[in-house]
Structures are given as structure tokens and as C-alpha cells.
Amino acid sequence: xxxxxxxxxxxxxxxxxxxxxxxxxxxxxxxxxxxxxxxxxxxxxxxxxxxxxxxxxxxxxxxxxxxxxxxxxxxxxxxxxxxxxxxxxxxxxxxxxxxxxxxxxxxxxxxxxxxxxxxxxxxxxxxxxxxxxxxxxxxxxxxxxxxxxxxxxxxxxxxxxxxxxxxxxxxxxxxxxxxxxxxxxxxxxxxxxxxxxxxx
Length: 200
Prior knowledge:
Residues 21-188 form the HD domain. With 200 residues, this protein is mainly alpha-helical.
């Protein structure tokens, strides 16, 4: 749809996207709530990450635009509506970061962002791609928060998915720690001390 369409057609497209985004609340993740009572859904995860960005903004590198980071985090997992959650420590089904998973996510991004008027489609699709590439300061910090939030949930819930997937300290360091440290080194320094106690 063209961004210059009639107000009615533009609004129809905006609500079509928002109604589709509601489906993210039905996508269950591997990570539990911090109290361990149940798994979180991807809508809850996205909201929590936006709050992480707001509260932990002082850990961002100079020049990071926290408002952009929040926007990025609110949309970063919309592709899970089609693809589902692919746990970083899972060895079953689709592999996290594999070519198959990335291709499926690209198709999902085309479909979901394609519901929007063209100006919003292009803006949000580009922001999602920026997060995935994790090359800009904003995306690097956003990706760090996306990795640290499940770590905190696992710590608070007595191991959570680390126990489920038999995660080792080395796996946590290589799969998660390097990404956190890249964008928020002080956060990883603090978290890895807490995590070390679990892996003793």
C-alpha cells in the first residue's frame, strides 16, 4: 500500500498490522518468568526489553539513541509470529542463527511489515534489519539487552533454560556473554559473576 493513500485506507493498514502484532502474545518462549511459574510469551519479552533499555540507558555507549533502541526492541521479535521462538541454546528443530532460520525470519518480516503503509513498512522493516545485523551502536546495545534479559530470568528462576538445555559456563560465555559484552560490558561483568555461582 502507498503511504500517501486515503486516510481510511492508511488507518485500515495500520490496524491490520497492529491486530497481527497481537499474535505475538501467543508465541511462547523457552524462558520462564523470573518466579519460574510459567514461560513468558514474546509480547511480554518485547515489553520487558523496552523497559530494560529505559532503565539501563546509562550503560549504553556514547551516542546511542535510547528512543531508537526502545523502538527497535518493541518490533525485534515480530517475526516470531510466523517462525516461533528459536531458543539460543536449543539444538532441536530450527537452529538459532542458521541460514534456514534467518531465511524464514526474512520472509516473516516481509509479510508482517508489508501489512503497513509503505512509509511505515520501510521504516520499521529497516529498523528490524538493523537490529538483526547488529552493526550500529543502537543495534549493538539493543542486542546486548536481548541477551541479558533471559540470563537474568534464568538466574532468578534457579537455572531455567540452562537446566533444560544443559548449558555450560563456556556455552553461556560464547553464545551470550560476547554479545552482552560487546554493547554493555559493565552489564556482562556484573552478570557473569552472578552466573558463575550457578555453574559451580
